[in-house]
Amino acid sequence: MMSPTLRSVSRLSSSSRSTRCLPRPQVLRRLYSSEPDAKAIASEFLSKTQSNPPFAQTQLLDANQLQRFSATFSRPELSKVLPKNGTPLPAGYHLAYFTPAQVEEELGRDGTDTTFNPPSPYTRRMWAGGELEWVKENKLRVGQEVTETTRLVSAYAKKSRAGNDMIIVGVEKKFQNERGVALIDKRNWLFREEITKPQPPARQPEVVPFPEGKHVRDFNQTPVTLFRFSALTFNGHKIHYSKEWCREVEGHRGLVVHGPLNLLNMLNFWRDLQGGDATPKKITYRATNPLYAGEPYRIVMGEEAMKVTEVKIVDSYGQVSMQGTIESF
């Protein structure tokens, strides 16, 4: 269980249905040429995928999922008693809903959902960052029937720090209830080349003191928390639960903490400082380095200035793992 320390002044969802379907990933892949160039692959993937209609699904925001999601984050205000209809979803908690629905045979080799994967060899996915923007007078609430509409907005080639090719894919998700759009969620996924030769585990750097800041909160995630988050978000990515896959295939020294899990930790911390029920106007965030279960890390949050709060996550070795900017209404 997470035990955040503050120092500062199913998948049981009922009634989910899809209104449009994208082509199966294996069908998409047959459409592409054998051109190995990352830039050409990204361009062709973007063109062909954008020719398809957006993917839409409608779902009831049920109380059970919200309660269990809150328990995963050790948030007693919504986990001790089943939330009532009309309870607003805390910022970011929409991630407990509209989870992937692919059968196992359609998942990637690493267990990831492949709905918006570029073609091989760029199939190894990581959550790179994104932006969330809320509508002030229209909150998502328990008991609402909400429609999520997803469309591909970008795909482009880029070089990694090591000089390797990768493809960055951007999607936009709009969430609408009976009053209209309540939230726009833009996500960027980074796709590296498939691993053909197992990578040796990364070396653990030397521990250094955490940085100080106006507001700080420390974490040390456990495999249990990672498992529960994966289960509730129906995320089969092996880097979050298989030590063998992490160490013997991808070269990670341990289980990798989910990027969106820490997005929510930043939002929860901001809400606590603002007064608990606050909803931000926008958060922009970027993941820069992995974090591992069993290794302490710290969220450092600055003082709000001109309705803007800067936040970063720093690991035990001095590396910034995520950074973001939160805007208030």
* Helicity, as a percent range: 10-25%
The strands making up the biggest β-sheet line up spatially as 1-8-10-11-12-9-4-7-6-5-3-2
Secondary-structure arrangement, i.e. CATH architecture: Roll
- CATH topology heading: Thiol Ester Dehydrase, Chain A
Mean pLDDT, rounded to whole units?
90
What count of helical segments does DSSP give?
Answer: 7
| Percent of residues in beta strands | 25-35%
**CATH homologous superfamily, by name?**
Hotdog Thioesterase
The first-level CATH class is given as Alpha Beta
What key phrases describe this protein's structure?
329 residues, alpha+beta, Thiol Ester Dehydrase, Chain A, twelve-stranded antiparallel beta sheet, 7 helices, 12 strands, 30% strand, globular, disordered N terminus
Notes on the protein architecture:
This protein has 329 residues and is α+β, with helices and mostly antiparallel strands. The protein has one domain: Hotdog Thioesterase (Thiol Ester Dehydrase, Chain A). The protein contains seven helices and twelve strands. It has helices spanning 25-29, 38-50, 63-72, 76-79, 223-232, 243-250, 259-274, and strands spanning 5-7, 16-18, 55-60, 122-134, 145-159, 165-177, 180-193, 215-219, 282-287, 297-301, 308-315, 320-327. It has a twelve-stranded antiparallel β-sheet. Strand 6 and strand 7 (180-193) form a beta hairpin. The protein is globular and about 50 Å long. The chain starts with a strand and ends with a strand. Residues 1-16 and 18-35 have low confidence and may be disordered.
